């Protein structure tokens, strides 16, 4: 097996990064600053990469499945990745609390700044062995996402982003800056949607679109990432998700120039003062996409 940690280590202090970062050892979110530095983002990628390695070790072996109270599946990969992320964040960012799908309680977060983690998004895809599952770490501050890392270990892809730094994709150690693709409001739309959830509602919405379109079925938070890298124009989510499902990947889209809005046109927000479940939303690249589809979505019943 390849050394996943080494595959996912890469640097963000490239000449095309124009953000100004705090100088000295006290800068970054591990100190008092709300600015995410290249070192902060590297640390998050390293932690996610370690968790990804543990996920792949379980993926390569027989996997016992249990079910949580909400009947969603839980594997040893979820548990091991969660423990690795919690330990890594505690070492690198000791002052910042952590909420995870598998540990921590959102309602008990007293700080406006916290990490929001989904150690294995797409457990169904993991069990289907189609490779479309991800490790997700987001840094939330005052409801908005400051930084996000999404690792798809079976595909060898790492997506990372931070406000002020931009969005990036790394494959086999080669790093590429991400930008959403342009759309003129008239041509065919490239739509990405869930492989496992909400097909009927999505099909009904697609049938009413005023333009031709193509559809790509993708699992987990990779749907956001396909918008961020310009493979798709839009990801409509007309079914349930939780805060930890979306936070990290929302940051990838936003830092690549896109947006993630609820059906009222407001950005998704995060924190203990908000419901655990997200509203329905749309992630898209060009504003022309929202201008085209937004009115019809706002008329849909919740």
How would you characterize the overall build of this protein?
The protein has about 300 residues and is of the alpha+beta class. Helix content is about 30%, strand content about 25%. The protein is built from eight helices and 14 strands. The protein has helices at about 5, 40-60, 75-90, 125-130, 200-205, 220-230, 245-255, 285-300, and strands at about 65, 75, 100, 115-120, 135-140, 145-150, 155-160, 165-170, 175, 190-195, 215-220, 235, 260, 280-285. It has a seven-stranded mixed beta sheet with strand order 3-4-5-6-7-8-9, with helices on both faces. Helix 6 runs parallel beside helix 7 (about 245-255). The radius of gyration is 18 Å and the shape is globular. Mean pLDDT is about 85; it is low at about 1-25.
- Based on CA atoms alone, the radius of gyration comes out at 18 Å
**CA-CA gap between termini:** 46 Å
Reported for the largest beta sheet, the result is: 7 strands, mixed
- Side by side, the strands of the main sheet go 3-4-5-6-7-8-9
Mean pLDDT: 86
Q: How many E strands?
A: 14
Share of helix, binned: 25-40%
Uncertain regions: pLDDT < 50 for 5+ in a row?
A: 1-26
Number of helices: 8
Q: Which geometry do the CA atoms define?
A: globular
How are helices and strands ordered from N to C? HHEEHEEHEEEEEEHEHEHEEH
Based on helices, strands and strand pairing, what is the structural class?
Answer: alpha+beta
Q: Oligomeric status of the shown chains? A: single chain
* Percent of sequence in beta strands: 15-25%
Quick gist of this model?
Helices cover 30% and strands 25% of the residues. It is built from eight helices and 14 strands. Strand 8 and strand 9 (174-177) form a beta hairpin.
